[in-house]
Design goal:
2 copies of one chain form a homodimer. By secondary structure, chain A is an alpha/beta fold. The first copy, chain A, has 9 helices and 7 strands. Chain A has one domain: P-loop containing nucleotide triphosphate hydrolases (Rossmann fold, 3-Layer(aba) Sandwich), CATH 3.40.50.300. In chain A, strands 3-2-4-1-5-6-7 form a 7-stranded parallel beta sheet, with helices on both faces. In chain A, strand 2, helix 3 and strand 3 form a beta-alpha-beta unit. The longest helix of chain A has 25 residues. The interface between A and B is large, with 36 and 36 residues.
Chain lengths: 216, 216
């Protein structure tokens, strides 16, 4: 019974997600769904990418949170066109939420659209929401075992952003163990180290995203 | 329909959780449900408490993970009596999972029982699983805004453990902002700083747990 309901929820979600994706593609909007744990550095990543990719094309952000609009206000204060979804408890964004907010957004054709998902390495991996690709953000402070413990988030992401690399030594981050875990679930996903405070590492990731968009 | 199903799931879970709790209380077992993000330091916390509380009374641990038994093996290597629940995708532990594993565990009367929930600040807060109390573990590396963004996990926890305090300066952790957020959702919850690497800070938390158990 529950399994059937889950299937029905996924089917309904996926149908809406396909529709959203087609609509965005028709307007040449390229959409990135950003996953990661609480405090992994998703908003800093988006800020650093906005500095770079926002120079090429218009850029908008949808911020997903269980509660609060702290990140949306921070992005707006930087002049970034940001919109808030507050799920009020739901542990992931879904296609109906994206459909609803897109109807209120004024995006230019050809935009970049970044969607910051709820801070959670589990549930957001289970849902497509109209994106061209997912990326997953993991902080070295979370430890080197995350690809083993949360395989779906890594397996479904096209790239991995490894944040707070300046803390690696202090926390004893074992990059070899992390890479082995990642290789077993997502052998093709590149890893981009990114220091969200300084922006170091953002340019290679921006270049990779431009290429992904170009070949989409 | 979904709301009704959710209510039915909660009701079924809560009834089983009450039954579990009564059974554990009858055996003088005190049960702590440990919440926190991926990589917050839940296993290190349990290890540090086991060193201290395990001297008073027998102690057992249930480890919840979406995938892998890395933590259970690490705890067993330290001589801690640990049992694994692998949810295979589920984002939280529930009472039926606990009931099933308890039936296979040989715990002495009077034990401490620590249950490490799935690394997730959202879903685990919604479920009671037979515990006497919840505690939530948050790393300073996750940032100072977590009580604002994930209010339920903090509101439903009797105490907050603030881990990796040695990184506070490097990450610019704003303790005042964290405390204000916590005060708005959990005004009575004490905060215990804990360095999981050195064990510094574990003794005050152990003392608080002994007191909580004594007055339960």
């Amino acid at each position: 019974m529950r399994v059937e309901l889950k299937r029905a929820i996924y089917a309904e979600n996926d149908a809406q997600a396909s529709e959203i994706h087609e609509g965005l593609r028709a307007r040449s909007i390229f959409t990135v769904n950003v996953l990661g744990s609480p405090g992994a550095g998703k908003t800093s990543l988006i800020t650093r990418l906005a500095e770079r990719l926002g120079a090429d094309a218009p850029l908008a952000v949808i911020e997903g949170d269980v509660a609060s609009d702290i990140d949306t206000r921070a992005l707006r204060a930087l002049g970034i066109d940001a919109y808030q979804i507050e799920t009020g408890g739901d542990c992931h964004l879904n296609a109906p939420m994206i459909k609803a907010i897109l109807s209120r957004m004024k995006m230019d054709d050809g935009s970049w659209l970044f969607i910051e998902n709820i801070g959670n390495l589990i549930c957001p991996a289970e849902f497509v929401i109209g994106e061209d690709l997912k990326i997953v953000v993991a902080s070295v402070a979370e430890g080197s075992d995350k690809p083993y413990k949360y395989p779906a988030a890594f397996a479904r992401s096209a790239a991995v952003v490894l944040t707070k690399p300046d803390l690696a030594e202090a926390v004893g981050f074992d990059e070899g163990f992390f890479r082995s875990g990642l290789a077993s679930v997502a052998p093709k996903a590149p890893i981009f180290p990114l220091n969200g405070k300084t922006g170091e590492g953002a340019e290679p990731l921006a270049a990779w995203l431009r290429e992904a968009r170009h070949s989409a």
